[in-house]
Target: SET domain-containing protein
Amino acid sequence: MSNSTPKALDPHSKPHISLQRCPDLVLISDTPKGRGVFATSRIPKKAVLDVCPVLVLGLEENARHIEKTTLYHYTYNWPVTDQHNFKHVAQALIFGLGSMFNHSLQDQNVVWERDTEKLVITYRAARDIEPGEELCISYGNHLTFEDTDALPDEVEEEDGTDHLSHIQID
Ligand SMILES: C[S@@+](CC[C@H](N)C(=O)[O-])C[C@H]1O[C@@H](n2cnc3c(N)ncnc32)[C@H](O)[C@@H]1O
Model:
């Protein structure tokens, strides 16, 4: 075994993104929505829940490959500008808890903010969250699954044209 110390650098000497995850969260596997994130203690409004790195997918890569896989259900809108200055909506994979927040329109208690330069999304409590509550974002109105939280008058008539290849979190 070598006695030399592993190479280290002063992390503050480099441009960096501070990471933060609220410790009062658990992942529960067997909910009607699959896995979901729940609070174990009271979480105050505006508290940071997670800072999640993002992987932006190429437009063609997404259409040719990702949309045909399970990852289709884990991609989110991400605005990009191409070399001609045209704006597009690409898809992005979100690492960390960002991909585990389920959807609820009426019980949304999580808000998020994109940083398109640093490629992270920060999730915060939209209001005070009580122990035992599920943490939910809104995916928008065009869902690719049956919403277990939907009130009867929220169920939309499906004619197939509303299906999007991504989760809409705008
Ligand atoms: C980004 S994943 C969220 C984590 C997911 N529950 C899991 O177990 O990996 C999105 C998927 O969660 C499920 N989901 C999220 N919100 C839901 C809801 N309100 N009703 C039913 N299923 C939901 C759907 O299967 C959807 O495709």
The two ends are 53 Å apart (CA to CA). The longest strand covers residues 48-57. Residues 17-141 form a domain with the Beta-clip-like fold (CATH 2.170.270.10).
